[in-house]
């Protein structure tokens, strides 16, 4: 059950390969992430960071082993069930933000509530309407200016687009926020500021944050680090 107590993420005996006869990209015997934790994932390019995030988000499932999120065994669910679960419980911040260019800023942020009744309910429990909740979150992320909010999303700076993407992931208070290198196009000062904003918002809702980055200077800000190359030492060498 998604509301059951216990860890938010639990992986056991996971083996994942992209091609049927290809090497195992992920070989993770165990991984547990507690509720409210802020976990930094680091590893060289190609070590499987994005692949792992895809498993946690239920985009893919392992050939062997189990992936549980919020007590729900995603690895045993159908693709449609996993899509539904993701919409309800996971906010995903993509490296390239994936904002919808023909929607306004506020509508981009409201979007998850169009796909999830749960997130709609939670957003409406906090504000009088979905747009009001989107603006509240944008305000917390330093995007409160009404004139700015009327701009097309494509006219925003990279840093502003990134904060819109963060507000969208946070909308409707999903329990798990997954961020895949969301700071790679920012300078060092702004990276730290962005991470701090993300922490503040996760703390406010009790959300767990799993954050992938190549920027080692961000690592000390997090509760702990998963070094994927070490956790995954046996890549390609085990059945
Ligand atoms: N959709 C896919 N189909 C086939 N192979 C893939 C796919 N996605 C990733 N791979 C392969 O899986 C391996 C791990 O890739 P992944 O993107 O997870 O690594 P990463 O650690 O996130 O890398 P980076 O830091 O460069 O983003 C690589 O060898 C990659 O080529």
From TrEMBL:
Occurrences of domain ABC transporter (ranges): 9-234
Record keyword Transport present: yes
GO molecular function: ATP binding
Keywords noted in UniProt: ATP-binding, Nucleotide-binding, Transport
Pfam families, per database record: ABC_tran
Protein's name according to its UniProt entry: Methionine ABC transporter ATP-binding protein
Family annotation (SUPFAM superfamilies): P-loop containing nucleoside triphosphate hydrolases
Organism the protein comes from: Thiohalocapsa halophila
Alphabetized SMART domains for the sequence: AAA
């Amino acid at each position: 059950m998604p509301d059951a107590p216990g860890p938010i993420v639990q992986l056991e005996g996971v083996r994942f390969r992209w091609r049927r006869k290809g090497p195992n990209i992920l070989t993770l015997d165990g991984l547990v992430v507690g509720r409210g934790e802020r976990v930094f994932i680091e590893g060289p390019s190609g070590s499987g960071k994005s692949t792992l995030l895809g498993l946690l988000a239920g985009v893919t499932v392992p050939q062997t082993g189990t992936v549980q999120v919020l007590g729900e065994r995603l690895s045993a669910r159908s693709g449609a069930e996993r899509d539904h679960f993701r919409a309800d419980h996971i906010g995903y911040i993509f490296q390239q933000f994936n904002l919808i260019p023909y929607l306004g800023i506020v509508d981009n942020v409201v979007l998850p509530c169009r796909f999830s009744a749960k997130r709609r309910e939670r957003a409406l429990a906090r504000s009088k309407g979905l747009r009001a909740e989107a603006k509240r979150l944008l305000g917390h992320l330093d995007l409160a200016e009404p004139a700015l909010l009327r701009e097309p999303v494509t006219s925003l700076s990279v840093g502003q687009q990134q904060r819109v993407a963060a507000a969208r992931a946070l909308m409707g208070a999903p329990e798990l926020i997954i961020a895949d290198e969301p700071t790679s196009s920012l300078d060092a000062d702004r990276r730290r500021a962005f991470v701090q904003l993300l922490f503040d918002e996760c703390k406010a809702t009790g959300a767990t944050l799993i954050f992938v980055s190549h920027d080692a200077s961000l690592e000390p800000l997090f509760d702990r680090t998963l070094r994927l190359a070490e956790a995954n030492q046996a890549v390609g060498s085990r059945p």
